[in-house]
Amino acid sequence: MPPLLEIRDLHTEFSTGAGVVRAVDGVSYSVGAGETVAVVGESGSGKSVTALSVMRLIPNPPGEITHGAVLFAGRDLLTISEPEMREIRGGEIGMVFQEPMTSLNPVLTIGRQITETLEQHRGLDRSAANKRAEALLTQVGIADPTRRLKQYPHQLSGGMRQRVMIAIALACDPKLIIADEPTTALDVTIQAQILELMKALTRDRGIALIIITHNLGVVARYADRVNVMYAGRIVESGPAAEIYHDPRHPYTIALLRSVPRLDRPRQARLDPVEGQPPDLTRLDAGCAFRPRCRLADEECARSRPTLTPVGGADHFAACFRAAA
Amino acid sequence: MSEPLLTVRGLRMHFPVTEGIVRRRVTGEVKAVDGVDFTIARGETMGLVGESGCGKTTTGRCILRLERPTDGEIIYDGQNIAALDGKALRGYRQRIQVIFQDPYSSLNPRMKIGAIIAEPLHVHGIEPNAAKRDTRVRELLSICGLNPNFADRYPHEMSGGQRQRVGIARALAMNPEFIVCDEPVSALDVSIQAQVVNLLEDLREKFGLTYLFIAHDLSVVRHLCQRVAVMYLGRIVEMAESDALFDAPLHPYTRALLAAVPVPDPTVEQGRDFQPVKGEVPSPMNPPSGCVFHPRCPIAVPRCAVQRPETREIRAGHFVACHEVQ
Predict the structure, then answer these.
(1) Which residue of B has its CA nearest to A142?
(2) pTM of the predicted model, to two decimals?
(3) Alpha helices in B82-217, H assignment, sequence order
(4) Residue A39 to chain B, least CA–CA distance (Å)
(5) Fold type of domain B4-19+26-95+176-281
(6) How far apart are CA A241 and CA A52, in angstroms?
(7) Where are the domains positioned within chain B?
(8) With an 8 Å Cβ cutoff, are A240 and B280 in contact?
């Protein structure tokens, strides 16, 4: 069976004053039905731009998807017409963004923002849409939905707004939800509530989930598979347990070593990833992680390594030194 | 334990809530900090943790005397600084410094890095000679792991991690003995956080610094702090040695907070039985009666809704404000 979503050799570029930034530079990954896939990386690694490219939400100019294919349920999302794409956004693919205050419309009621989706995609009339909106709010754990539907985003707390975002993403029974840093702006206890809610809802309904985050703990708790991104490329991908227990790419190894652990007493000093993240306008032909890598040699300067199998099944790393 | 460098006793900071545009009336009060007690020994790093709005930053601002507390004592090296003014306050401010969370908004974008670091030396009249000031600035940059030539750059030319190092260099310029670190690594990327945490540790050893480390990232706090206080709605609910607090938390809020933090290890995560705490933090304008945590607490009994729990020392050095903890 083909995967639900397959991203093939995606390239997205931005023209800036300082030159062309290859924000996404040949990214391929797939998501199976009902699967939870995490995309991990730091600012500027291209994890969000990849997701926005899948939804065709890259502002052009300055951005442009220059190459690749995004196959979703048998169709290439990069070649279908804009009206067809609009059907898919918020229909078969739902989205949850980081900042619920800026992704909700401040001058529309919560109710209107949910019913709009239902009327657009499902052709429901106002009263049917209202009924469904109430049911959705109850499902995402919002008490007193009738009153909440009449409220505006500023009257809700951050956690509540993110629940509304999830309700909108769920409104049309999507097959896939893309969540871009869904809990980064929230407090720890609220973050846990929102993540548990997303896990329960996607598991019960067999919805696939792409969760984009920089939080390695969140990935460990929720993801089936992990893609680690650095400088616009996937440098390592594999089942979550393998990535954590047998990381192969020096960046993944360094990243996991650099985070202090809450469940362990303080040990020695932290072992940070030295150096600064790369300037994407000044990448050369070699491996982008080379300047910060302890294993780098001449070979790493000549060309950028591609993903090759390492260790167990479905485990890949893009590093000349990561051989099994 | 040696004589504490800082003792905070009964600290209260209440902000008025006003209404009306033409005639402003005070209609309420936000009890941002509502009766906080703790001490910090010389050379110690004390963690202050909690979620947004719990009062941890306001506590730090009171200690820095960026706010004048409503009530309570802040005894620094034997002197109550809660109500200091004028010259005495300026003297106190030479001994304490702050590192802020956001390295983007805490550096003036129109000033060169060198001028930013030299400003406190200039303001306090520590080093009137410009050439010597410049030498000191370059020395501070290199202590903080930056190229001394960065003195001639502007903040926008630097990455987030580099800017935070500038913020640290600025704090060190006055040779302080005590630094309030308010979420100093929260805005940084994961790979850069560890660099800055290590720098803070090195500086503590090198200069014998004392830190109040305010943060919501509990993993970093466990790594860096010897003692930790957990705040909820303006009060300290639990305070203990770091390992005691993280290995055997007693207050139900601390337990919920620790359980909510996922650990970067899928095997550990699979073995955890995890139930997120229900509800959200109530408004500090209208806090719940009795124990402020009782509406969300899994072990609350009727008494918790009426009687505010006293802070008790359950084990040596382990303080908890909860009726039900034995």
Answers:
(1) B279
(2) 0.88
(3) 86-93, 113-123, 130-143, 160-172, 190-207
(4) 14
(5) Rossmann fold (3.40.50)
(6) 27
(7) 4-19+26-95+176-281, 107-174
(8) no
Q: Give the containing element (helix H, strand E) for A219.
A: helix A216-222
Residues B42 and B63: their CA atoms lie apart, in Å, by 15
At residue A92, what are phi and psi to the nearest 5 degrees? -80, -25
Three-state secondary-structure class, residue B128: coil
Residue of chain B with shortest Cα separation from A195: B276
Surface of B (210-229) touching A: CB under 8 A: 216, 218-220, 222-223
Q: What DSSP letter does each residue of B185-223 carry, written as one string? A: TTTS-HHHHHHHHHHHHHHHHHHT-EEEEEES-HHHHHH
Going along chain A from its start, the domains and CATH numbers come out as 1-83+211-262+270-285+302-324 (3.40.50.300)
How far, in Å, CA of B238 to CA of A67, rounded? 55
Structure letter (DSSP) for residue B306: T
Q: What ipTM, to 2 d.p.?
A: 0.83
Spatial distance between the Cα atoms of A183 and B130, rounded to a whole number of angstroms:
48
Q: Is B198 on the interface with A (CB under 8 A)?
A: yes
Contact B233, B36 (CB under 8 A): no
User: In which residue are the tokens 């930056």 written?
Assistant: B146
Which of B198, B257, B262 lies nearest to residue A220, judging by beta carbons?
A: B262
- Which amino acid would we find at residue A75? R
Whether B151 contacts B111, CB under 8 Å: no
Which residues are within 8 A (CB) of A47 and not within 5 positions of it... i.e. 6 or more apart? A39, A40, A41, A212, A229
Question: Can you count the helices (H) and strands (E) in chain B?
Answer: 10, 12
- Please report, in tens digits, the pLDDT of each residue of chain B (326 residues total): 567 999 999 999 999 888 887 888 888 888 999 999 999 999 999 999 998 889 999 999 999 999 999 999 999 999 999 988 888 898 898 899 999 887 778 899 999 999 999 998 888 888 888 899 999 999 999 999 999 999 999 999 888 889 999 999 999 999 999 999 999 998 888 888 999 999 999 999 999 999 999 998 899 999 999 999 999 999 999 999 999 999 999 999 999 999 999 999 998 888 887 788 888 888 888 889 999 999 999 999 999 999 999 999 999 999 999 999 98
Question: How far apart, in Å, are the Cα atoms of B85 and each of B68, B89, B90, B298?
Answer: 10, 5, 8, 46
CA distance A120 to A172: 10
Q: Are B177 and B206 in contact (CB under 8 A)?
A: no
Nearest-angstrom CA–CA distance, A68 and A9? 5
Q: Which residues of A touch B (CB under 8 A)?
A: 42-43, 157, 159-160, 187-193, 196, 214-222, 240-241, 244-245, 254-256, 258-263, 265-266, 269-274, 276-277
Of the residues B52, B257, B269, the best mutation for testing chain A's interface (the one with the most A CB atoms within 10 Å of its CB) is B269
In a mutational test of the B interface, the residue from A194, A197, A270 whose CB has the highest number of chain B CBs within 10 Å is: A270
Q: How far apart, in whole angstroms, are the C-alpha atoms of residue A225 and residue A25?
A: 21
| Partner residue facing B263 (CB), from A217, A258, A265 | A217
